[in-house]
């Protein structure tokens, strides 16, 4: 998919890399209510109550480095009970980009820790913050003390698939 085919980001804050330079610049980002609703839909979570970030961007001829902090409050769905529960995220992160295209086009041998290639002269810090939020979210959120729906509605005994057959034949565990 090319950049022109991709949908507009839910939370966008584009910067021109040439305006940053080696000295760097600091950016304070905060999403509004409409943006947070669209982010929640994209991340398939009931709601995002807060998404803020502070990012420091430095650039050279060969690369761009972003260091920052993310703060977010979300409402998530418990994987066990399906109840809504809060999740708070407060983390630091670092992201590196290279301006030098890779000579190795073989994806299988690509180093996953290598900086991503930066195409063009702009960078969307809002989209990077949403991506960082996605990476920081608990993959299987479970509310403390939540009983799973399977535990609540499953039969009380741990019946084997052959329990009904044993009963029909009049056998017990003692006289198999």
TrEMBL record:
Task: List the Pfam families.
Answer: YceD
Source domain of life: Bacteria
Q: What is this protein called?
A: YceD family protein
Q: Which organism is it from?
A: Hyphococcus aureus
């Amino acid at each position: 998919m090319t950049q022109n085919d991709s949908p507009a980001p839910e939370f966008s804050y584009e910067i021109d890399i040439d305006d940053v330079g080696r000295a760097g610049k600091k950016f304070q980002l905060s999403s509004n209510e409409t943006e947070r609703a669209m982010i929640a839909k994209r991340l398939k979570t009931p709601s995002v109550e807060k998404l803020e970030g502070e990012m420091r961007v430095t650039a050279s001829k060969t690369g761009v480095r972003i260091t920052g902090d993310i703060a977010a409050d979300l409402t998530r769905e418990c994987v066990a009970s399906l109840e809504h529960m809060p999740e708070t995220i407060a983390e630091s992160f670092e992201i590196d980009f290279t301006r030098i295209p890779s000579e190795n086009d073989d994806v299988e041998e690509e180093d996953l820790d290598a900086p991503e290639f930066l195409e063009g002269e702009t960078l969307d810090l809002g989209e990077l913050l949403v991506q960082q939020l996605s990476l920081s979210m608990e993959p299987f959120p479970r509310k403390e003390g939540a009983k799973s729906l399977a535990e609540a509605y499953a039969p009380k005994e741990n019946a084997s698939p052959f329990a009904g057959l044993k009963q029909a034949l009049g056998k017990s565990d003692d006289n198999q």
